[in-house]
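Good morning C.,

I know you're traveling, so I'll keep this short. The sequence:
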Amino acid sequence: MVTMRDVAQRAGVSIATVSFVLNDTKPVTAATRERIEQAMAELGFRRNMVARALASRRTRIIAMAYPALEHKFGGSATEFFIGAAEAARSQEYHLVLWPVSNDGGELTELVGQGLVDGVVLMEVQLDDPRVTVLKGTGTPFALIGRTTNLDGLAHVDIDFDTTVAEAVRYLHDLGHRQLVLVSGSVADPSFRNYGPYVRTEAAYRRVTAEYGIETVVMECAHSAQAGREAAAGLIRDHPGTTAVLALNEFVALGLVSGLYRLGRAVPADVSVLSLLTSREMGALSEPELSIMRSPGPELGRLGTEALIRQLEGTDQLPPRLVPCVLEIGGSTAPPGQRPA
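The tokens, ready to paste straight into the viewer:
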């Protein structure tokens, strides 16, 4: 087995200097660091992460806290994870996924064990108890999402105002005047004051008022089955609807399926535009969904970078709001027309 002594001999330095490089405990000149890293590569030396953590009192592990039991994994969520993992790896950190509830209880226990250097929070509520937990323990953290009070909090998020405005403008330009937003349901306590629901609905109400369009919002649980049930409710309660904006990508898939089962063609009878969605999820539909593509990879990267900058003591990343991007599929068309 290759040891630090072997690396030191190959690089022509002391064992202590090799240790400084491995554990980031003392500064080493760029030229010396390069010689040591080259020697490690030539010898096939593998860093002992446990020893490094003990020496530096840091694990170089960061956690992404995602309430997986309450919030399903979809294509867009996966993109957040991938972006975060790539950002962590580029800075020689390891990312782990913590599927903990967003009530803060499990997070208290996990953080107290010193398993990670910091936490990236996802699926943020306007008044998120996990923020109180992390502040109380002094654990570095960053938000992908926004609480009501953001003073001193590192955060990035979707620009819901711009996203909704672009979605409504697109449908309005197609000629749609009878729209419905199928939003999330806040009946489940884990979604009460859930940022994306609240901000999307607020933006939708403001934008439709600006266009002089009647504002209609339907609540729906976040599943394909709930989307099918919403399709029945849509036809029953709002029969003149020509276009639907679906906030959840599972719901959007269920809407298309439900409308088809009830004899409504998409998009000839009803157009469906899926918000906060990944390309992969949109492609599961027939016809393929028109989507407001979620900026998951970028926000995953930015949120992780914001946390790592705290851990490294470098300049803080300024808050960023990134809008979704319209990608037109086959589920939208002018009212009463099929796409070319």
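Safe travels,
E.
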